[in-house]
Specification:
It contains two helices and four strands; from the N terminus they run E-H-E-E-H-E. With about 70 residues, it is of the alpha+beta class.
Amino acid sequence: MIIVNVAMMQEKVIQLLEENGFTYQEKQGLKLYFQEPSNDITTAAQTAKRLIKQSSFGSALFFNVEEV
């Protein structure tokens, strides 16, 4: 499981990651929990971070991705 900590545009982040194989689990405050599409959590966290950064809105966001 990975956690994306992001304050703004949470719905867009959820939509982006779901379109790329991640499964949204829940939201707790600023934390969005996702199940990764593979068993390699490190690669999944890097992929999520790259997808958000490369999106049209990603350059304006302050976020981080954690492995759980």
